[in-house]
Design brief:
heterodimer; A: about 290 residues; alpha+beta; Uridine Diphospho-n-acetylenolpyruvylglucosamine Reductase, domain 2; Uridine Diphospho-n-acetylenolpyruvylglucosamine Reductase, domain 3; Enolase-like, domain 1; 5-stranded antiparallel beta sheet; 14 strands; B: about 800 residues; Aldehyde Oxidoreductase, domain 4; Aldehyde Oxidoreductase, domain 3; 7-stranded mixed beta sheet; 6-stranded mixed beta sheet; 35 strands
Chain lengths: ~290, ~800
């Protein structure tokens, strides 16, 4: 549990960070909150020769409104997300999910950028970003580009980030006023990754689901958007048969690994239950 | 007497003696981060050692190449078994009569076994060095399942034992067999089963787990070449035993070994025995002439230092059809891993597992335990329990529930029907123990009344009906547990470690101003000895507890004792403290008589001093007597006021308790909620009720963890898959249920203050309460026994197998 030696860099601007990353190549890793990278280094499963600490870059922090979007700087911590009035009012699901990430100590340090950019299927924020229709801003040696969260994840720890690129912010369209939302996460204990989790954002009209988006955490090597499950509930009042159909549709796209949280069959089964519960709760808090 | 004269109550309260909820004096430093733990010790020139460990569970070690490692800046030495052989330390004795490799000698026998020890100027360099040591292995077939260990084609694990048909505890039946231990009357028991109206039989497993103290095992060894002295700072629950062991195996004179246990961050049985890290650090210090520190990380602690449990108990009860038990038959398959590294008293290869008749009046019983080797980490130690008592309590408490289910009786009623009656104490059990005292019926009835047990059963019946009607997906379980512990090892007639009788000791030295220092052979790891030991002395001699400093853990200054584990501190050292205090008091009485110019017999002790009988104005306080002890003792008496006591207990003590767990389980997810947990403990005389409550909270939390998920698990190829707190269930305050505590007081008749010990009771009684709650919840769906641990997915699996989930 002792890391190997590495050089430490603390650039003051995104441009400097990008330059360092491109110059140093594969031996360099950007450091955000460090809650994924540092444990891997202590186990020597990651042995970067250079750590590029992003904490010195002031422009990577903060939450601002940009038209109908909330733009969150990559180095904004989970704690800062939780403290944001704007987030709890505009998109309460983000507040709810951030509270389920690990524990206060981790949330003081862990960042939204690190959480979404690492490509860890166990992280909670990626599925949230898919559900909310977020886009990520990536800055690299060739300039900057915007990538939809739904196009970002390609495999476990494998994303569309190119060498030298840094994820600098996420932009989230504010959901419709009166929307309902819920994040249902089954975990063994505080600090654990989800055995299965489901995020739901929906709007209701005359007692029926008008729009719906469902995201799934840790039931596949990437976060999932359960489009068929969402489609199945549109126009319904979430009766028992519909919920069953939606859960089955969601389970159909899950491919979790068997681990100490349970065998594949269990994780898919509770994944379906998380979808059902999130739909019911989201419908109940929609206006 | 005037208004300013303190009342008796005020004088008594000022002592903060026995029965007082005195605040823990050690917490002032612990809660401010000012404790002094082993890793806080930094000596000039200190080096750091760390292990190369085996990735294989079973393999031949073909070659160890340290040439690249020695090129790493800061790496000074790489120690292997070959190095250790030059000082005859490649192997070390275990406390269980086995031997254990210090470093891999030709073979590795479990994953993460110690293979080489890299010594460097700092921990970073040591770890860099580890990664450069090249070890060539030839993997061998691993043996993981203890039930296959004695198959005829099972791989040979311990080549060092080839041809040895006898072990430390008698004949060996197979190359992977360690011992067979048999107690009780087999014929009488077989006969009871033959004529039994009802019998049950179940294989009840208590899975492998780990004590996992927050502070891992660690030491600093400093060898002084000039003086030829070795100082060892370590996380030792039994520092004196460690000194003797080091002296015996390293052939160093015992007076030249100084063992110091500073503050310890939890032990729970993990820190009783000796580990390769201690030997390697000592050898490294002797070789380099510099202090060497070794600190285990969490993965190493969980996967290499001693595990606990791993008992597979085939249990049978014979009974009449109206529910009177007539016989008990238990066979245990005990998985010890690669080496038998139990820390039991020498003559007890399965600890005190023969307490398995529990709180019940079994006319006859028979027990046999077979210990076997597997390719897993060595052990197993007593994790917050007195030598296999948790396994025994789990075994009998599950079995009684299974019998109740078969007889269609309430589990509490079945227990009440079979309890040893108060008038039967001292009670001789069918498996050889003499229970000192108990009043089980009163404790059980108090539990049932306080929890409204009958109403809970009614609610459960209603919920079951609602479940069957499809109105709820939640099932409710009531887990009854009534345990009898056996603690306070122990009497020299049947308890020793490496030939040293398991007495304990206390030395008290009173200073002229009425303050004093007391030292014991025990060692607190969080139990609060500095607080409670002073309370015993305060009540015994009438000096405020605040004026008594308690010191443990330094073998140079503390009297010899066997240490703290198995809830032995209060039963054994607690008795020694009272006896030493009484010697002080006896001398004080002579001094007081001299000063008050009366005969000793004319004095009576009155809270904080001596008073002349019938002349209450003539009084001398203990404080004044302390002063007099240094300037005006009676002619012929030696000055000073100090005493030593070595206490050899006449018997064990037998704490007991009645627990109830009320649990709700969502069958669709397997998620449980402990709605209520009630724990009534009878530990005899209560020294500090607040500390008792704290001990019960801690023990219940560990019991909760074990029963509901805490497990050391190996996959079928021998890889340990629970190497961190991510997967090894360590509950936080969020998961931990609320605890309700209660008590009755049945003093031990043979203990000087009637105390029995409590630290481990809640773990012993808690595990069956949780497991019985889960099993009780599922029983109406047709299940008889579901193995622990009861984590979410396994609960769901049980529900699914019972047809409750599609």
């Amino acid at each position: 549990m002792i890391p190997g030696s590495f050089s430490y860099h603390r650039p003051a601007s995104v441009a400097d960070a990008v330059k360092l990353l491109s110059d140093l190549g594969e031996d360099a890793r950007p450091l955000a909150g460090g809650h994924s990278l540092v444990p891997m280094m202590k186990l020597r499963l990651a042995t970067p020769a250079h750590l590029i600490d992003l904490h010195g870059i002031a422009t990577l922090k903060g939450i601002r409104r940009d038209g109908n979007n909330l733009v969150i700087g990559a180095m904004t911590t989970q704690h800062e997300l939780l403290a944001s009035e704007e987030i709890s009012q505009a998109m309460p699901i983000l507040h709810e999910a951030a509270l389920l990430i690990a524990d206060p100590q981790v949330r003081y340090r862990g960042t939204i950028g690190g959480n979404v950019a690492n490509g860890d299927p166990g992280n909670d924020m990626p599925a949230l970003m898919l559900t909310l229709g977020a886009t990520y801003r990536l800055e690299g040696p060739g300039g900057s580009r915007e990538v939809a969260a739904s196009d970002f994840y390609q495999g476990a720890y494998f994303t569309t980030l190119e060498p030298g690129e840094i994820l600098t912010s996420v932009s989230i369209p504010v959901p419709a006023a009166g929307h309902g939302s819920a994040y249902e996460k089954l975990k063994r204990k505080v600090g654990d990754y989800a055995t299965a989790a489901a995020a739901v954002i929906l709007t209701m009209a005359s007692g029926k689901v008008a729009t719906c988006s469902i995201g799934l955490t840790n039931v596949h090597e990437t976060p999932l958007l359960a489009a068929d499950a969402a489609k199945a509930v549109i126009g319904t009042s979430l009766d028992a048969a519909t919920l069953k159909k939606a859960a089955a549709a969601a389970e159909a796209i899950m491919a979790p690994a068997a681990d100490a949280r349970g065998p594949v069959e269990y994780r898919k089964h509770v994944g379906g239950i998380m979808v059902t519960r999130a739909l019911q709760r989201a419908a109940a808090n929609a206006k | 007497m005037n208004d300013l004269t303190p009342t008796r109550e005020q004088r008594e309260a000022a002592l903060e003696g026995m029965g007082c909820k005195r605040k823990r004096v050690e917490d002032i430093r612990f809660t401010q981060g000012k404790g002094n733990y082993v890793d806080d010790i930094k000596l000039p020139g200190m080096l750091h050692g760390d292990f190369v460990r085996s990735p294989h569970p079973h393999a031949r070690v073909k070659k160890i190449d340290d040439s690249e490692a020695l090129k790493v800046p800061g790496v000074l030495a790489v120690i292997t078994a070959e190095t250790l052989k030059t000082v005859n330390l490649a192997w070390m004795p275990t406390l269980a009569g086995d031997v254990q490799m210090v470093l891999a000698d030709g073979k590795v026998l479990f994953q993460n076994q110690e293979v080489a020890f890299v010594v460097a100027t700092d921990r970073y360099a040591a770890d860099d060095g580890i990664n450069k040591v090249m070890v060539e292995y030839e993997p061998l077939a691993p043996l993981v399942d203890p039930f296959k260990s004695m198959d005829s084609d099972a791989p040979v694990l311990r080549e060092d034992l080839a041809g040895k048909t006898t072990g430390a505890h008698g004949p060996r039946k197979h190359h992977n067999h360690i011992f067979e231990w048999s107690v009780g009357d087999r014929e009488l028991t077989d006969a009871a089963f033959k004529k039994a109206e009802v019998t049950i039989k179940e294989m009840i497993s208590y899975h492998r787990t780990h004590p996992s103290p927050l502070e891992t095992c660690q030491c600093v060894c400093a060898f002084d070449k000039i003086k030829g002295e070795l100082t060892i700072y370590g996380t030792f629950q039994a520092p004196h035993v460690i000194r003797t062991v080091v002296s015996l195996i390293a052939k160093l004179p015992e007076q030249k070994i100084h063992v110091i246990s500073p503050d310890i961050g939890g032990g729970f049985g993990n820190k009783v025995g000796a580990y390769p890290g201690y030997i390697c650090a000592a050898v490294a210090s002797i070789v380099t002439g510099k202090p060497v520190k070794w600190v285990e990380d969490r993965i190493e602690n969980l996967t290499a230092t001693s595990f606990a449990r791993d008992y597979h108990m085939t249990t049978e009860i014979a009974a009449t059809k109206d529910g009177k038990v007539t016989g008990l038959r238990v066979h245990v398959l005990a998985d010890h891993g690669a080496f038998d590294a139990c820390a039991d008293p020498s003559k007890w290869p399965a600890g005190f597992f023969n307490i398995v008749t529990g709180s019940y009046d079994f006319p006859t019983a028979h027990l046999a335990v077979d210990g076997v080797y597997t390719n897993k980490a060595p052990g197993g130690v007593a994790y917050r329990c007195s030598f296999r008592v948790t396994e025994a309590a789990y075994c009998i408490e599950r079995a009684m529930d299974i019998l109740a289910q078969k007889l269609n009786m309430d589990p509490a009623e079945l227990r009440l029907k079979n309890f040893i009656k108060p008038e039967q104490f001292p009670y001789h059990s069918a498996l050889g123990w003499e229970y000192d005292s108990g009043d089980y019926h009163t404790a059980m009835r108090k539990m049932m009344e306080t929890t409204s047990y009958a109403a809970l059963r009614k609610e459960q019946a209603d919920k079951r009906a609602a479940f069957k009607r499809g109105e709820t997906r939640e099932i409710m379980g009531l887990g009854v547990s009534f345990f009898t512990e056996i603690v306070g090892a122990g009497p020299s007639k049947n308890c020793d470690i490496l030939g040293i009788a398991m007495f304990d000791s206390c030395e008290i030295r009173m200073h002229p101003t009425g303050a004093g220092i007391a030292r014991m052979g025990t060692k607190s790891q969080g139990q609060g000895h500095e607080t409670t030991w002073a309370q015993i002395i305060a009540t015994e001699i009438g000096i405020p507890a605040d004026n008594i400093m308690v010191e443990e853990g330094n073998t140079d200054t503390a009297p010899y004792g066997l240490g703290t584990y198995g809830s032995r501190s209060t039963p054994v050292a607690g008795a020694a403290i009272a006896m030493a205090a009484r010697k002080i008091k006896a001398k004080a009485q002579m001094i007081a008589a001299y000063k008050l110019e009366v005969h000793e017999d004319d004095l009576e002790f009155d809270i904080d001093g001596f008073r002349v009988k019938g002349l209450p104005e003539r009084y001398m306080s203990m404080k004044d007597i302390c002063w007099a002890a240094y300037n005006s003792v009676p002619p012929g008496m030696e000055p000073g006021l100090e005493a030593v006591s070595y206490y050899d207990p006449p018997n064990m003590t037998y704490p007991f308790g009645a627990y109830l767990c009320v649990m709700d389980i969502d069958v669709d997810t397997g998620v449980y909620k402990v709605r209520r947990f009630y724990a009534l403990d009878d530990c005899g005389t209560r020294i500090n009720p607040m500390i008792i409550e704290g001990q019960v909270h801690g023990g219940l939390t560990e019991a909760f963890a074990i029963a509901m998920g805490q497990e050391i698990r190996y996959d079928e190829t021998g890889n340990v898959v629970t190497g961190s707190f991510m997967d090894f269930f360590m509950p936080t305050a969020v998961e931990t249920p609320h605890w309700e505590t209660d008590f009755t007081v049945t003093p031990s008749p043979h203990h000087p203050i009637g105390a029995k010990g409590v630290g481990e009771s809640p773990n012993v009684g808690g595990v069956p309460a949780f497991s019985n709650a889960v099993n009780d919840a599922f029983s109406f769906l047709g299940s008889r026994h579901i193995q622990m641990p009861h984590d979410f997915w396994r609960n769901w699996k049980a529900a699914k197998e019972l047809g409750a989930v599609a």
